[in-house]
Fold:
Amino acid sequence: MSTELCADCVRLLESMQQLAPVGNVYTSVPEGLRGGLLRYIVHGIRPGDFLTAVLSNDLAEACARADDLNRHRLFDICFWLYNHAPSPCWKSPKNVAAWLEAPRSTAACGLLR
Ligand SMILES: [Zn+2]
Structure:
């Protein structure tokens, strides 16, 4: 996923890969979700059901949609969103719908192929 990403994706990906200390453990965005999150935040592409539920702030739906890995990583995802994601792109179904409708960068990006 590292080849020819646009500048915005590169910047956000770095923050996802960073290990952030929380108490006496470290947190980062699960690798399998990074592409979907970047496609959504930077390029406005609809994410899967699990990420849509997380971004919409729907805890019960997120738990219901999570796979075996991500149900144990909800904190890591929310921690990153809270600290790095643009506020208007998440926190409610209304925000998610508006974010998906807004025009986005058409810069060439390896994530869009
Ligand atoms: Zn990009």
Q: What stands out?
A: The mean pLDDT is 93.
